[in-house]
Amino acid sequence: MFSLGNFLTLSTFGESHGPAYGGIITNFPAGLEVNFQDVQHQLDRRKPGQSALVTQRKESDTVQFLSGIFNGITTGTPIGFTVENENQKSKDYEHLAEAYRPSHADFTYDQKFGIRDYRGGGKSSARETVNWVVAGSLAKQLLPGNVEFRAYVSSVGEIFCKEPYSELDLDLIDSNEVRCPEQETATRMIRKIKEIKKEGNTIGGTITCVIRNLPAGIGEPVFGKLQGELAKAMMNINAAKGFEYGSGFAGARMTGREHNDLFNEDFSTQTNYSGGIQGGISNGMDVYFTVAFKPVATILQKQDSINMVGNRVILEGKGRHDACVLPRAVPIVENLAAFVVADLFLVNKIRRI
Amino acid sequence: MFSLGNFLTLSTFGESHGPAYGGIITNFPAGLEVNFQDVQHQLDRRKPGQSALVTQRKESDTVQFLSGIFNGITTGTPIGFTVENENQKSKDYEHLAEAYRPSHADFTYDQKFGIRDYRGGGKSSARETVNWVVAGSLAKQLLPGNVEFRAYVSSVGEIFCKEPYSELDLDLIDSNEVRCPEQETATRMIRKIKEIKKEGNTIGGTITCVIRNLPAGIGEPVFGKLQGELAKAMMNINAAKGFEYGSGFAGARMTGREHNDLFNEDFSTQTNYSGGIQGGISNGMDVYFTVAFKPVATILQKQDSINMVGNRVILEGKGRHDACVLPRAVPIVENLAAFVVADLFLVNKIRRI
Amino acid sequence: MFSLGNFLTLSTFGESHGPAYGGIITNFPAGLEVNFQDVQHQLDRRKPGQSALVTQRKESDTVQFLSGIFNGITTGTPIGFTVENENQKSKDYEHLAEAYRPSHADFTYDQKFGIRDYRGGGKSSARETVNWVVAGSLAKQLLPGNVEFRAYVSSVGEIFCKEPYSELDLDLIDSNEVRCPEQETATRMIRKIKEIKKEGNTIGGTITCVIRNLPAGIGEPVFGKLQGELAKAMMNINAAKGFEYGSGFAGARMTGREHNDLFNEDFSTQTNYSGGIQGGISNGMDVYFTVAFKPVATILQKQDSINMVGNRVILEGKGRHDACVLPRAVPIVENLAAFVVADLFLVNKIRRI
Amino acid sequence: MFSLGNFLTLSTFGESHGPAYGGIITNFPAGLEVNFQDVQHQLDRRKPGQSALVTQRKESDTVQFLSGIFNGITTGTPIGFTVENENQKSKDYEHLAEAYRPSHADFTYDQKFGIRDYRGGGKSSARETVNWVVAGSLAKQLLPGNVEFRAYVSSVGEIFCKEPYSELDLDLIDSNEVRCPEQETATRMIRKIKEIKKEGNTIGGTITCVIRNLPAGIGEPVFGKLQGELAKAMMNINAAKGFEYGSGFAGARMTGREHNDLFNEDFSTQTNYSGGIQGGISNGMDVYFTVAFKPVATILQKQDSINMVGNRVILEGKGRHDACVLPRAVPIVENLAAFVVADLFLVNKIRRI
After folding, report:
1. Whole-prediction pTM value?
2. Is the pLDDT of residue A17 over 90?
3. What is the DSSP string of C36-89?
4. ipTM of the complex
5. In the predicted structure, residue B90 carries a pLDDT above the cut 60
6. How many other CB atoms sit within 10 Å of the CB of residue A177?
7. Which terminus of chain D, N or C, has fewer Cβ atoms within 10 Å?
8. Residues from chain C contacting residue B114 (CB–CB below 8 Å)
């Protein structure tokens, strides 16, 4: 309960200012020769301090596997791992012990639990996503080698990619610091984020993710639909505000005649408004979806707020924050999607006799 | 696994052309005096044949409770129920036994299971939602009496409500057949749907749902966030293509300075871009979200398609279908949301010593 | 939560005096041609009124499948089923509405739920096991054809089988009404039960179950051990008081030198104190276990008791009860074991890449 | 799936020769001031090297909490913990890399996973129970202060306690190194174990556990019965071969007239064959159960065996093993029972409106 996945599951722990994050992956099949380089590569993509756009906190973000892998091969038993926290500056937060920051989880955690770890958000910190990148990058290795997860920043504020994913060269995603493969748009996004950062402000945006070469048959009827599992996972990312797949919200404006994806004789479809999913199950076409992210709530400007007893205080963000989380969220989206898909992929293997 | 809910769970069964739908609700607390009228009222709101806008299939849609309720009071043991299918016209579908309808689940079910119940979609039929309305309308009765779930049609095709939910009189939702409380907009929507229906076409739209008076503290950290649970549930509705809450996709265009919800001294917030949820947990403000629905795939026009061996066929929808599912989806969204919230509400009762 | 099985799951409902029992099996693989005869055969073996030894209640106990099977073949979608209650004599129980019967669940249900369905135990009735026989007899069909589940009555009161299971002809189990394959012992058991019945008393006993030809590899490390899953399932049977497998309690008296099962060169073992399970996982030898059942609590003699307000009452069991449940529990044990094993068998298919 | 508990859950990882064991407890309520001393005390009771009776391996067995506790108080978020392995002597096992030890999990893990961590059993090591002691000793703190878990060694080989638990002074359990409160019997047990140890042999036995002052109402109908949850947990302990509660196997020899527990006017019962549980739910009387443990499979004598290719080898146990696990299993049984009970206790809080 309250873990990620249905058969292949991830339980996690960790707080921004505790000693470590970590997790346990259960039911991971035996016999996989782990590509540790890719796991670390994905962690490096998520890591703070990669560019001028994101927080300058330095963390090495190296994962230690504590079980479930013997001589580099998975043994089928639970995979335990930790990622240590370094460079915790609890002091940065002590002035916040009594204040509720606007649009953070300070107030709601306090209401719910009657106790609050005020050090940088504690459990509500987005550093939790480091666990998901570890688990997702491992899970991805369970899928056929040609299945690809490609996420990119499709908008920052009012700046949108001009072309849909199908017209973009997704090999260019990591070629710039904003992770948008449309170069000219990337340049404008980068300029915008730097400007926003200088103001001590933050900005939102969207990430689009494409899953290529996914076999047909992935996803379960009724309560385990592929889009439902993806939506849940994505909406659990800290700043996520929306999810759509295939035609998405634009599809709601269309008629059936326009929206129906007619078949080719090889069972592919002429259009792909369905986003590669019909009745909750993949149909072999590209699966694609977009996640909306709100602007980071911590701004380096003065803000009015209240404290725990309802008195007015003035906050001014300190510390090292992201002006725009989107570039760092790209590997989170990709690897989280990989975990979701790997779980349903395993399940699908036993859905026929 | 693959049921709805975490502690309070719903398992379901049923196919469009089988004898009955039904479900089992587990862990429903003892001692509730059931309001059967409201359950039936919600079923009636979902029922086909209510107006000229929707399918003219006639089904009485009455629920039979088989256990878990004694002398009108819940006993704490599993609640089993069935809703019989009437008026099944399997014959309507026999011409489809070999064909794959575009943008339906015919092809994917066949790919996944190697077997296909071709009678009207079988398990993939939206009639499954009748189970959710039963379970959700019961679950809602577990919540404090002042918690309200109000969904309405906020757009049909290109026709959108002009005002946000907070400016509308939600008591007017059921006052017209399209279930849009903005009367002039409703009139335009109705006209549009009738026009589309005459063409044998279908049209999509959006439903917005507001949850009022929800106490703070509902939702779980990390993998049980309120928005994640709502998103999963909503994306499992048959034609859903997108989900957003609070500022949603529009929030992705904003800056942190604009988007942050500043506190009042009574811990309410001056704005509510957060959609009543911070860090996955309700904060006491209105929770609101919007779901995008694609146009129904079954159109009453000729369409090219292929059959199971990849040969070209021409399809022409017969039978009684909805030109626009939105009006009937309103009670589905409301009651499904109620189930999700009731589950997390129960859990929240034991999250502090 | 609180369902049977991990991947293949069974949720159930039903009360002794409600309209029907039933259940939902999820994740049942597609493509199985169902042997309905065997399902009914197992139900018939469990049915009351089969012989003079057991209750004379007459129930036809026929199952109606409501979904998940199309043209006799499983479709992969949830299998819903009901078994109607007939011959409910609620009147038999009205005198009990206020009394707590000794060693029944009357008092505990009342304490827990604050409400009590007094009609024959309500949810605590052993009639619930009808659901398990349906589900287990279906699940068994997922296993390789040579896997056999053979349970028999190994003791009644002080009368024990003289030989271990391995020396008995298990084809004789159903050849007598007590379901003990050791004929001379069976005769003594039958005589004993008739004697006890005449007194209006009841008697306990044990059932031993053997699973033959189970492949090695079934069961999961740590929290999904085969013996743990079997123990849980068996201890949920209404009158079960104990479970042991392999050497069981006798093994606790032995030394390691005696108890260790030495290997043959074909990986079979010379002895089988392990009961076919090592480290929670089947090793290819016979799996065998024994379940202890207490005597039925309802006796047709006068007993002192108290009512809900703590006043003394005198009870005298009426109605049609079993003097010894053991014969009817044989198919329950077999089919419940089959469900447990089928669940772990499916899981085991995806535990290696 | 395959974790411990239903609402309060424990996931674990760790192998005997990996760097650490550990686990994650989810849904632990906020606001508990943790008694760390008791956690460590329970770990110390389980620790090897405590007496001449058990293995002389030295491990400090200290737990490190990594999250979920802030300033000594639980925060409601996942509790992550690790217990480091020290003193791993993998070398001790290298000669076993190719051999299958009799009555160990070597063969079955190899059959299941196709890969085997041969270092001392890897995942199948009983060192896993260190995780359960941590989690159970924390969970126990959620229960009312007067609820007691008292386990003791009730037999070693053929030496049995003469009196039932109710006649013993359970405060004497830890007063001797075998943890049997019947002093004269303890002396005989100790002598026996020393004798067995000198021979390089091992011996089995039983542990009886009493839960006192448990409120009525704990346990769930049908698939969550208290005895089923206890049985599953206990049968997952590494050498467990049997479980019985209340009258247990002896109850199977009795008649209903003898076995029924008649009520006193205060709702207590005159006898307690029910073992404090009726219909799966606690009734306020003592809950008691007994677990049978086989003798440890590793003996320090020569044994015939085979290797992975089916060739004969001669094994001779080396290293530091327990001649009798029973004394060290006492805290495992107690704390595991506490976890099971705490889970159902929390659940019971939300089973009535």
Report:
1. 0.97
2. no
3. HHHHHHHHHHH-TTSSTTS--------EEE-SSEETTEE-SS-EEEEEE--S--
4. 0.96
5. no
6. 16
7. C
8. 30-31
